[in-house]
Write a structure and sequence with these properties.
Length: 261
Amino acid sequence: MPDSRNNIKSVSKPPVISIHGLYKSFDNIPVLEGIDLEISKGENVVVLGRSGSGKSVLIKIVAGLLKPDAGVVRVIGADLNSLRKRELRNLRLKIGFLFQGSALFDSMTVRENIEFSLVRCFKQMTPGEVTKEIRSILNALGLENTENKMPAELSGGQKKRVGIARTLILHPEIMLYDEPTGGLDPVTSVEINELINQVQKEYSTTSVIITHDLTCAKTTGDRLFILHDGKFISNGSFEQVFETSDERIRSFYRYNFIDAA
């Protein structure tokens, strides 16, 4: 039976992400209440929770896009609360963020979307080096024939892949996925789940995957954390988390239409 207290699960490797006593509220409404979490290098950690549970707020804090009200957040050894603006910008180069809607520029081609990210961060690259990098990442992610397409011409799954490519081309140490299978059909969702695992293996990334999709969680997560009313109520492997009589967790399981047998 998983421990339902809000504790950190021990990990053997030095943590890449370390969070202690994290609190965040908006307009005096608590969203995160005393979150503790440590993630080791190379782990895929899934945070599961219903809409509005604070999942996206959590990874935006990890990315330095939001400031906590209280608590310590350390990312790749840096205390986010003590970083200056330039230091924070440099740290963000090591953090890839896949937004829920992929956040592509509609007026740019696939190549231009990826090039914008690359050239902005690595201004010293030659045009030939840029082209080589772009085509390499497109090939790696199964996007060989999309270089000159507009986002409107892409399927939902292709947009997700381009969003990952635009992030991955910067060689981040950390990947943050916000609802990576949201709005996708089941077959495409399976492909994105496989891609997340591929990225972990081939690029040695440490990842936080925010989702309410149990298939995504089971397929990609080395460890799962259940977020409920601003607190973690369970953590462990998929089997450990869902071998429980806790109705808050069981109802989430039933909602996803996964066979409980």
